[in-house]
Fold this sequence. Notes:
Blueprint: H1 4-13, H2 26-34, E1 41-44, E2 52-60, E3 62-67, E4 88-89, H3 113-121, E5 126-130, H4 131-136, E6 142-146, E7 153-160, H5 166-175, H6 197-205
Parallel strand pairs: 4-5
Antiparallel strand pairs: 1-7, 2-7, 3-5, 3-6
Amino acid sequence: xxxxxxxxxxxERLPDVxxxxxxxxxxxxxxxxxxxxxxAGFVRLPVxxxxxxxxxxxTETTVVVIPKDHLVAAxxxxxxxxxxxxxxxxxxxxxxAWERLPGQPAIERPATTEDAIELVxxxxxxxxxxxxxxxxxxxxxxxxxxxxxxxxxRVALSWPQDGTTDLVxxxxxIVRGRTVNSTRGRPQTPEQPKATAKAKAKAKAKxxxxxxxxRKPGSGKAAGKNPRGGSGSPKGGKSxxxxxxP
Length: 246
């Protein structure tokens, strides 16, 4: 596959952490992960979940690789039945789970998909593979068309269960489309402990205004009272000039 987009995002977000790509065959991928040859890898399902974690990403379209001047190149899509008269190459590293391979078998099975592509270019037969492999081995003299009823291949991101590091989590987040501001896939800031009710009450008691309003030194008025309400006069007293007695 071609993880160009994800590599670009990684380099933008973590420019000081180099990311090295290692190309391996499908048969070698799981061994490389288990042996520590890679921290994570794109593999084809199924994955042994006993020691590996995996996140399914997408299902690939299956295509038939043909010469550009082949009759099939004239249509948009074919079925397995349309290939009944064709010699369909079946490389030893085939990634599709066929119940019955379409077409006519070749005399020998090519060792690799790359070898099978060379035979297609030589006019020996056709090859049915996941679309990414057709793109990987692209040649100017070949093309491909979707096969409607062929087995499909599911791609997943996999990594050792005991190797789920912060950097692996970062890469998982990038592949899954999380934004740079997402809190998932990166180390979390430890949550500060919340103050208990007892601690809050103790802190409140230490504040200068604890226990209600206080009188200001040298003042005969209560804090927060309206002076016109008579709070600074004796109880029942009135302001104004004294009345004359008759």
